[in-house]
Amino acid sequence: PLVIEVYVDTSHLTQSQTLIIVDEFGKRWDVAHALGSSADSSPRTNRNGGRLCEVILERWTVELGDLANHTTSELNDALPNVYKKGVVLFRSLYSFARLLPAWKFYRKLTRQPGSHQALRLRFRIKQGHDLSYAQPDSLYSPLCRAEHDSDATVERYRVPPLLCRSGPLAVSVEYRTNCEFNVADSEALLSSRFLGLDE
């Protein structure tokens, strides 16, 4: 399969900036701390001296399924019909992608000046089932207490396959439900933690 990951890149954060996530109750949580504690390792630093962390927001998988699961007549649909169904499939994917939390986060980033320019959305393409990670998968890592107590950190959606002669073309996505990320001053975040304003 072809795997496309959309992630938050924090390589442009300075030493005094921290990536945070805001939960449903308005509490701020240090993302690098949450990822560091789940990895049981010391946080890495970026070129600006800030803590480097990477949070996967979406993982799209595109693959051709097994021919054996479908009859020959299903797979031998006329090419114009496959084309028409493909147009509908890709238009629906385009529309669906704009309903996901990562798209809303991207729109928020494009409207924010200043410190938010340090955050960027990036993507990478992987081939096959090569999803081995040296650290825990940040798509599934809980970043705040509400995510520890819930199974709704990640949701999945699978598009009905497009049947063609090469096999059924299947597209699926896994995505984080909470993409309320912000940049906070590290000292202010630490002070508020000591004062008990944030946990």
Automatic annotation (TrEMBL):
Keyword Zinc appears in the UniProt entry: no
UniProt-listed Pfam families: ATG13
UniProt keyword list: Autophagy
Annotated GO CC locations: Atg1/ULK1 kinase complex; cytosol; phagophore assembly site
InterPro entries from the UniProt entry: ATG13, Atg13_N, HORMA_dom_sf
GO process annotations (BP): mitophagy; piecemeal microautophagy of the nucleus; protein localization to phagophore assembly site
Residue stretches making up the Autophagy-related protein 13 N-terminal domain: 1-181
Family: Belongs to the ATG13 family. Fungi subfamily.
Protein name (database record): Autophagy-related protein 13
Lineage of producing organism: Eukaryota, Fungi, Dikarya, Ascomycota, Pezizomycotina
